[in-house]
């Protein structure tokens, strides 16, 4: 079967090439630091790099997060809860959302302090483990204050900003997609794996929006969003002209519509295919635990946020 450039392969594959999954976070990690990518996707996995001598420690460290990521995780989780409740007729106020977020933050700080003290409590769903608290590189109260401030501003903007009214209103509808899987396959056994924060039909358009929890000028996420547009056009059969993509910056109270053309969608697909070529070349090194093939970025500002710093500093 001949597939054109926008096609997504929905036939059972008989190709022999290894199935490789592409996700925005996976490729983002590789571009940030190849060694971190190895630790994250091979070294810390039970079934890969089986003879990595740091396996046990990497499996523990992979749970470490940092204050920016934890703020983002809590905000996404609280917003998803808002929509779940709103769909049942119980939309939470900004105060209630913030207080729920703060309780999650407190649980995360306490859990991280306990782990630092060697107290390993069993949780069915463990709170986030904060690197800054676990290693004591920042004062516990300062970590709390910094994240709490971010939660309050972001959730306040989510609840009250007129910029996000259409997202709040349409996200409450029964048929809206909240934290929906965006999974499809491109030719050559390429699996695209993402999560859409919010999507819905509104007017004669299909809207996809991504909650951004960092500063607007620090995020380069167009490829991620274009991969969602590809999903909507082929998987849901929506015309390219009808797909609207937005980035909702909660901290900065800013909404950006991503303008894109046929050409940009084609370019996005080419970028993904090129990314996958690199992932495929590295795959066997990762499976074999050959971490030396993955260079260290050694950029202090990246390393400071890396969960694997402890193992990395001791390795070649
Ligand atoms: S500590 Fe730095 S160099 Fe090492 S894996 Fe992490 S980001 Fe990469």
What does this structure look like?
- The protein is of the alpha/beta class.
- It has a domain at about 35-165 and about 295-315.
- It has twelve helices and eight strands.
- The protein has helices at about 25-30, 35-45, 55-60, 65-85, 95-115, 130-135, 140-160, 165-170, 220-235, 260-285, 300-305, 310-315, and strands at about 20, 65, 130, 175-185, 190-200, 205-210, 245-250, 255.
- A hairpin with a 2-residue loop joins strand 5 (about 190-200) and strand 6.
- The longest helix has 26 residues, at about 260-285.
- Residues about 1-5 have low confidence and may be disordered.
- Iron/sulfur cluster binds near residues 33, 35, 39, 297 and 303.
Write down the overall mean pLDDT.
91
How big a fraction of the residues is strand?
Answer: 15-25%
Q: Overall 3D geometry?
A: globular
| Element order: H for helix, E for strand | EHHHEHHEHHHEEEHEEHHH
Major β-sheet, in short? 6 strands, mixed
Oligomer designation: single chain
Q: Estimate percent helicity.
A: 40-55%
Number of strands: 8
Poorly predicted regions are 1-6
Radius of gyration: 21 Å
Helices, by number, come to 12
How far apart, in Å, are the first and last alpha carbons? Answer: 47 Å
What ligands are attached or bound here?
iron/sulfur cluster
Protein structure class: alpha/beta
Task: Give a topology summary.
Layout: E1 20-22, H1 24-32, H2 34-43, H3 55-61, E2 64-65, H4 67-87, H5 94-116, E3 129-130, H6 131-134, H7 140-160, H8 165-171, E4 177-186, E5 190-202, E6 205-212, H9 222-235, E7 243-249, E8 254-257, H10 262-287, H11 300-303, H12 309-314
Parallel strand pairs: 1-5, 2-3, 6-7
Antiparallel strand pairs: 4-5, 5-6, 7-8
Iron/sulfur cluster is lined by residues 33, 35-36, 39, 296-298, 302-303, 306, 308-309, 312.
């Amino acid at each position: 079967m001949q597939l054109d450039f926008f096609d997504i392969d929905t036939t059972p594959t008989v190709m022999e090439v290894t199935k490789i999954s592409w996700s925005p976070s996976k490729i983002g990690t590789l571009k940030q630091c190849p060694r971190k990518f190895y630790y994250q996707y091979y070294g810390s996995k039970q079934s890969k790099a089986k003879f990595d001598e740091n396996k046990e420690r990497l499996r523990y460290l992979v749970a470490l997060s940092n204050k920016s990521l934890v703020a983002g995780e809590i905000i996404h989780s609280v917003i998803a809860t808002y929509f779940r409740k709103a769909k049942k007729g119980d939309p939470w106020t900004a105060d209630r959302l913030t207080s729920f977020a703060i309780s999650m933050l407190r649980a995360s700080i306490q859990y991280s302090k306990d782990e630092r003290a060697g107290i390993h409590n069993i949780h069915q769903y463990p709170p986030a483990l904060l690197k800054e608290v676990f290693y004591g590189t920042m004062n516990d109260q300062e970590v709390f204050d910094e994240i709490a401030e971010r939660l309050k501003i972001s959730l306040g903007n989510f609840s009250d900003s007129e910029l996000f009214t259409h997202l709040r209103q349409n996200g409450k509808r029964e048929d809206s997609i909240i934290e929906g899987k965006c999974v499809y396959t491109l030719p050559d056994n390429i699996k695209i794996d993402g999560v859409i924060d919010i999507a819905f039909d509104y007017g004669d358009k299909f809207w996809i929006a991504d909650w951004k929890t960092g500063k607007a000028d620090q995020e380069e996420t167009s490829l991620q969003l274009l991969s969602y547009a590809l999903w909507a056009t082929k998987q849901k059969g929506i015309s390219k002209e009808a797909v609207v993509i937005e980035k909702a910056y909660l901290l900065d109270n800013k909404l950006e519509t991503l303008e894109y053309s046929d050409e940009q969608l084609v370019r996005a697909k080419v970028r993904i295919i090129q990314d996958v070529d690199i992932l495929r070349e590295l795959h066997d090194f990762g499976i074999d635990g050959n971490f030396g093939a993955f260079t260290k970025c050694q950029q202090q500002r990246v390393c400071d946020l890396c969960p694997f710093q402890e193992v990395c500093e001791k390795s070649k």
